[in-house]
Amino acid sequence: MPNTPGAAEPRPLNEIPPGQWAEIVRVQGPPRWRRRLYALGFVPGATVYVEHAAPLGDPVQYRVRDTWLALRRQTARHIWVRPLAQDPARAEHGSP
């Protein structure tokens, strides 16, 4: 993958703060975990929004493909994402 200027480097989903959008780059871990995460919508190319964390920080609520899901941080660390500057739907329509 070429290093595009201005493109954020991929990092684990558990490192993305609440209120931020990201694009899923890859899912790692045992095949059983990957299949389950794919079935939930965490597939490469999909966008994910980090909504908020529980009071003690775990689990974290995410929105992917118009579905709200809660994942433990330990599970989210297997999902690698590229942070996005804004809501991808707004970007498509030219809104900031």
Q: Which strand order spans the largest sheet, edge to edge or round the barrel?
A: 1-6-2-3-4-5
Major beta-sheet overview: 6 strands, antiparallel
Shape: globular
Average of the residue pLDDT scores: 86
Total helix count? 3
Secondary structure tally: strands: 6
Gap between N and C termini? 27 Å
Which SSEs are present, and which pair or pack?
Blueprint: E1 11-12, E2 21-27, H1 31-39, E3 47-53, E4 60-64, E5 67-71, H2 73-76, E6 79-84, H3 88-92
Antiparallel strand pairs: 1-6, 2-3, 2-6, 3-4, 4-5
Walkthrough of the structure:
The chain is an alpha+beta fold and 96 residues long. Helix content is 19%, strand content 33%. It has helices spanning 31-39, 73-76, 88-92, and strands at residues 11-12, 21-27, 47-53, 60-64, 67-71, 79-84. It has a six-stranded antiparallel sheet with strand order 1-6-2-3-4-5. Strand 4 (60-64) and strand 5 (67-71) form a beta hairpin. The longest helix has 9 residues, at 31-39.
